[in-house]
């Protein structure tokens, strides 16, 4: 069982003018597993999420709020495959590999975790996965 403490995504910015960093997104999850605090980072080429336009409907909350792919991508990794639990960082640059993260994902569970974490920002509460 995983206890999700937080998850978020970031668009990377160029550190140097000739750096390609602005082409990537980083998605992070902080969680507790088997009593140990852990973190997981997914780095991926931003272009990959642009190839999944049908995710927009899945990322819309009941109140109309729109979640971003970069915010939930690492969470999707952990929800879809236990093999990611043993890793701290993963890099994906393949469209098929990225698309698999969102196939058969339990969107209701993702939204429930998001709502629980948002409601308890001032007093963090862990959400079970």
Protein architecture, described:
- With 129 residues, this protein is α+β, with helices and mostly antiparallel strands.
- The chain is 30% helix and 28% strand.
- The chain contains 5 helices and 5 strands, in the order βββαααβααβ.
- It has helices at residues 47-50, 55-58, 69-80, 95-100, 107-119; strands at 2-11, 24-33, 36-45, 89-92, 127-128.
- Strands 4-3-2-1-5 form a 5-stranded mixed β-sheet.
- The longest helix is centred in the C-terminal third of the chain and has 13 residues, at 107-119.
- The termini are close together.
- The model has no long low-confidence stretch (mean pLDDT 85).
The helix-strand sequence is EEEHHHEHHE
Structural class: alpha+beta
What's the average pLDDT?
Answer: 85
The shape is globular
Number of strands: 5
Please mark out the parts with pLDDT under 50 across 5 or more consecutive residues, or reply none. Answer: none
Number of helices: 5
**Strand coverage percent:** 25-35%
Determine the N-to-C terminus distance. Answer: 6 Å
Helix content estimate: 25-40%
Rg (C-alpha, Å) = 15 Å
């Amino acid at each position: 069982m995983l206890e999700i403490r937080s998850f978020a995504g970031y668009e990377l910015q160029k550190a140097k003018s000739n750096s390609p960093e602005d082409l990537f997104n980083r998605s992070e999850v902080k969680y507790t597993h088997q009593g140990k605090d852990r973190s997981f980072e997914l780095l991926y080429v931003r272009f990959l999420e642009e190839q999944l336009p049908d995710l927009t409907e899945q990322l819309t909350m009941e109140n109309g709020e729109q979640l971003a792919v970069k915010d939930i991508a690492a969470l999707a990794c952990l929800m879809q495959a236990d093999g990611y639990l043993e890793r701290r960082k993963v890099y994906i640059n393949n469209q098929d590999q990225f698309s698999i993260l969102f196939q058969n994902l339990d969107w209701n569970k993702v939204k429930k975790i998001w709502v629980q974490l948002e409601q308890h920002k001032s007093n963090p509460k862990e959400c079970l996965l």
